[in-house]
Each structure stands twice: as C-alpha cells, then as structure tokens.
C-alpha cells in the first residue's frame, strides 16, 4: 500500500459520507480491500502499488466519463452510476453463464 500525498479536500459533510466508502474486491483470485480514511482525507488500497495506481487511474477515468456525460445530457450522475452498476452486474452474469457452458 502506498502512502499517496494526494488529498481530496472534502468538506466535513462529504468526509462523513465518504467514511462509508469501503469494500473488498478480488483480482486474479486474491482478495483486497479499499477504504477512505477521513483523518488522512484519502482512499487507500491494500494491494501492490502498481495495482493501486492502475485502479486509481481507472476510477478517475470512469468518474470523469460519468461526470462529463451527465453534464452533456439530461441524466443525473447518480442515475448514470446506478445504470453502470446494473449494466456491469448483468455482464458479470453473462460471463459466469459462458464459463459454465464452455
């Protein structure tokens, strides 16, 4: 886990809401976790620095894409996020079905 110098600069209400940001995830069968630390005003991962950097870049691009699309459409960011989650979950179900077949 790297000790990134980046700080989000969230206001107190956002820091409190972000303290709910934590989850476990698997990459190549290995389990990791990520969480927001309001004291350090940063998101951390317990995976390698290379993986952390890659995931951070991915999330930055994804967030920027959603923000940009919301600004250029009449769809709210939260609705786009919810749609993306459902879309990705459906794709995961399709991939699992294909694994069972093949």
Number of helices: 3
Q: What characteristic shape results from the CA principal axes?
A: globular
Order of helices and strands: HEEEHH
Read across the widest sheet, the strand sequence of neighbours is 1-2-3
* Portion in helices: 40-55%
Our estimate of the beta-strand percent is 15-25%
What ranges have pLDDT less than 50 throughout 5 or more consecutive residues? Answer: none
Number of strands: 3
The first-to-last residue Cα distance is: 37 Å
Overall average residue pLDDT: 90
- Would you tell me the structural class of the helices and strands? alpha+beta
Q: What is the gyration radius calculated from CA atoms?
A: 16 Å
Please, could you describe this protein's structure?
It is a single chain. The chain has 102 residues and is an alpha+beta fold. It contains three helices and three strands. The chain has helices at residues 12-18, 49-71, 77-101; strands at 22-27, 30-37, 42-45. The chain has a three-stranded antiparallel sheet, with no helix packed on it. The termini are far apart. The model has no long low-confidence stretch (mean pLDDT 90).
In short:
The chain has helices at 12-18, 49-71, 77-101; strands at 22-27, 30-37, 42-45.
Characteristic key phrases:
single chain, 102 residues, 3-stranded antiparallel beta sheet, 3 strands
SSE layout:
Elements: H1 12-18, E1 22-27, E2 30-37, E3 42-45, H2 49-71, H3 77-101
Antiparallel strand pairs: 1-2, 2-3
